[in-house]
Amino acid sequence: QSALTQPRSLSGSPGQSVTISCTGTSSDVGGYNSVSWYQHHPGKAPKLMIYNVGRRPSGVPDRFSGSKSGNTASLTISGLQAEDEADYYCCSHAGAFTGLFGGGTRLTVL
Amino acid sequence: DVQLVQSGGGLVQPGGSLRLSCAASGLTVSGDYMSWVRQAPGKGLEWVSVIWTAGSTYYTASVQGRFTISRDNPKNTLYLQMNSLRVEDTAVYYCARDLTGSYAFDIWGQGTMVTVSS
Known about the structure:
By secondary structure, chain A is mainly β. Chain A has strands at residues 9-12, 18-23, 36-40, 47-50, 64-69, 72-77, 86-93, 99-101, 105-109.
């Protein structure tokens, strides 16, 4: 099964908003409300930022929001800050009780 | 404090075996959906396996039949037994707790490196 499709890289200036897309199929992203997003700094464990498409775990700033339309999910980061620079991954239920991650997006804060 | 502490990993030859451990504190491995996720060098995250609270187990296709996920309830520890290892299994392996049972991993181990090489 191929990874969900994410842009390889994105950039933005402090204070701006960026949106990371995650495109799958009706068998994964489009078929379940089980999309999650992770922030990953190299050498550290990933951090859950969004789950069930648009829910934020406690402690995650409300600058991070998630949505989904059809087979594409999106993570929006508003008011970009230097510490947001990281790799971001989406993940979805992919049927047959399996999970599927996206290829990852490297976010650079200019 | 809720945490997962991993052990195991290391260098193994192709065709060899290795067992990873993930000791939990502040949560019960039998009371949560627990998964293994890996990241090969220079690559993205890849979901590997899950064990449900009821004990059902599922795997990504590339490890089906070679890897076995299990848990020891009295020790509150999750395991990943990896057999017939291949070069392409080289990765950092993470154990993780699934918050909702829908691939929302909120608690992660520190990761452990597995290198398969001759």
